[in-house]
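FAQ: What does the model actually see?

It sees only this:
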Amino acid sequence: MLPCNAYRFLYAFKDTPISEAIVRISKDHPDINISFIYKELDNYRTSARINTDDAFDALRQTIGLNPISVIRKDKNYYIEALQHGKFKYTGRVIGSDNEPVVAATVMLLSPNDSTVITYGITDNDGGFSIPCDRQGVIGKLSCLGYKTTLRKFDTFSVGTIIIPERTVALREIKVDADNTFLYPDKSVYIPSARQKRASTDATDLLRNMAIPQITVNPIDGKVTGNTGKPIAIYINNMEASKEELQGLNTQDVRKVEYLEFPTDPRFHGAEYVINFLVQEYEYGGYTKISTTDDFLIGFANNTTLYSKFSHEKWTLDLYMGSDNKNNHHHGNSTEATYSLIDETGNNYELKRSETLENSHYKQDQFPITLRATLNSDKVQVRNTLGYTHSDTHTDNQSGILKYDPSNGKEYSLSIQNPVVSNTCAYNGMVYLSLPKNVSINITPKFTFTHSNDRYMYETSFQDEAIVRNARENAYWYRVDASLSKKINDNNTIDFGVNGGEWINILTYRGTNNYHDTFHLGFAAALLAYNYRNRKVSMKARAGICHEPSRINNITDKLTYPFAGLNISWSPNFRNTLTAYLEYSTSSYTIQTKVSDVITQNEFMYITGNPHLKSAPMFGAMLSYMWIPSRNLSFNAYGSIIETFKRAVTVYEPFDNGNSLLRTYINDGNMINSSIGLSANWKTLNDRLQIYANGRQSVFRTTGIYYKMLCPFSFTLQATYYLGNFYFQAYWQSLQKQLDSINPETYSLRNFHNISMGWSDSRWNIRLTAANFFNHGWIDATEHLESNLYSNHTSITGVDTHSKIRVTASYTFGYGKKISVGNEIGQQSGSTSAILK
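And it is asked to produce this:
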């Protein structure tokens, strides 16, 4: 392999407009003079790899087979489209499998004598745009492996054209095209047709692509970075929810971008972003129906319907869903030790154990969402309205309660906690692209949730039950506004402001009676500078945030700065080194700040701390991405995050020492560090893909709780494709971590599954056997130790128990096919302040 500086002209374009490619060459080599004759160069694209010392050769390689001429005179180069026109013939070429036909030749022929007027080459999405003013031409479409097709073009917009594959047998042609490209500010992944066809939704596609920089939780589908950082997910540069991603037709995904600290204001300052780029069409619609059923764990079904209709610049979306659960494996068993004071004033230890014997959990959720989007070259406007009804009809637990010291008697225990909530949500977005490289983005959001939470705790040890009936109205709103100014191709300045508030109006009735009003607000301003060239990307940002709060009549204010610096170096398309430094502040939720004192059991009361302070935080991250070949990629990563004077749970004597009070204070630091390596390897003509990720973590806390935990975790996944069938095996080891607030160690049991499925352009049917080596219903354990209270809790659930899952989805279109992406979904509710 030649070193990266062996040639004077060294480029690797990927579906780049030729005009943009030539501008890049011209700026990199000011000693040559390149002149554009006609602006139609924007209609043509290039994916050329250039390795030469000669400028003329570099320009010819860039243009490739496109109908463009290059004339050289001394050191002057004149580039001209062979065909000029006010109008353009546009369309898209696909095969009978609905996959784009790349690099097909589209000739425009005279209807009189079939002479060639002009021609074009389809891009990576099968699209073409050919300048030509003559009407009523004949289109001749040809590509290796497909039948040559003739079509009369009566209009300039010819839509989608299907050309059939050849029926004659051809020798297998192996094309070793790269599907991963590294840039200073992003990594671009091209999903294969097999990966898209085998995926039921967007999250499933990420899992099948096995992108080395991210992890996908096998239980809840949450997508995070390797170091645990949250990743925001977008579709066509617009924010998408988990439910929206569920409706995505993955076969229309052209590429997936992984971005670190993107400069586009539509990403709202997110640090890490996955952006799905999907095909958009002029008009038409489609409907997708998906259903998932779990067996051997009770009843669990999730069914969604998504429908979209688009006409010109407008798109309307409808999402409806039903999520239903009904099982008898839900609850906790706890062995706890209380340090109390007896009637004589002496300290003593009481051991209290709750053993779960029976449980019943039944929940139904019904979301519906409507969305309207206006999308043009300079303006994007989106309005989304959503409603969700959630009803936990039954959440019952019963078992045995024991004490030590005691008279040897056992007591019965019963807990009931039905909850009903209704949520209305609005999400808006306005994006304006203004003259002089200025853009403005405004995003308003509002959510209202009304909840009725009924809790009753009964034991035969006490005559009276503990009753907590909570009725809550929770409001949340937020507005983000940003202005971005692109100074030149390398430099951009961003200015942003945002503000919002959580408002909770809460009434408790029963054992404890309260009426509360909580306000927790924020307002922030941010200034950012971005620099980017071919090899280096840098983003520096700094700002200030003000957080006022009012918990009933107790007010508090906090103002703090935040700053971050991200630098990424990518010497070529196969290597990227990224470093990140951050100083910020970790804010805490309303539940940790409420002043009410609520009875939890006969010996424990719980409350919050309205004077709890936010905790300063410093973080550093280093990541190296390496792609030695198209079949192999690695990501080595490491991070350290230290939170200072964090919020921690403490237990204090209460009621003259006869019981304990759980509350929160600021104390000690928490250090969370990790190093790891992930790899993705493909072989057997990409039919077999193996992904592995190993991570060594170190958790350490200081202050009144000094703890250290050094867990190692490992994930392994193998996928094999055989025609329309696919097979996958997955294994994730035991997961351990220290909780960031509670002085407890959390352990989640291993998760494993094998699955097989069949899919085509419309259907995807999958059968999965999960956790068949796991026995019992204990999903996880928690071990807590403090000076006055300790416990060991076994969490009963169905997440890691053996089960059979059947998944099916069906997508059908009507009219002309449109963009199958950016689907809407269930809207989340406001944050609750109810203590539990």
